[in-house]
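Mods, move this if it's the wrong board.
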Amino acid sequence: MDVATSQLTDHELIRRYREGDCSCFEALLERHKSKVYGYIFSVVKDKDVADDIFQDTFYKVILTINSDSYKDENKLIHWIMRIAHNLIVDYFRKGSKMPIVPNRPESDVLENVKLADDNAERAIMRQQTSTNIRKLVRMLPPEQRRVVIMRHYGRCDFKDIAARTGVSINTALGRMRYAIINLRRLAKENNIYIEL
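Not the wrong board. Structure tokens:
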């Protein structure tokens, strides 16, 4: 990586990468890999698992940056860390794994196992619920999906939603009602836990 490339901002590197300059993604990876890998390893405490999660994290980063859904808000590292965090949560949930405590007499269990802080656990649950809801919203019929996105992610009121979608307020409200019913049904059918 040349000096000029290394001095570009994340925003500029992403723009150039999307225009076809692959060295710019290498520069992004080089810039952020220590922080991301360090965080992953500090939580999972296993090199092989950390390597896998690290690779999955940057695979998702590449897929999203190359897709039309990527929105560059100059918060790249925060977004990457959120992806890594979600993959760590998925890893622990899938295996219901707890950190392994060395079986040595001099080892103090309380030194090796960090009990989850109640606030951190709630934050993880909120984040997982949000991820699950996004998955379910993608399964809704287009007109219901649009109302949910405008209402909850776009913070639009029903008058705005009705005007933007060309329907009456009652129709917009009805679509929202059916969307909630369908979200609950889809959650049950797909065995996805959500808190509505």
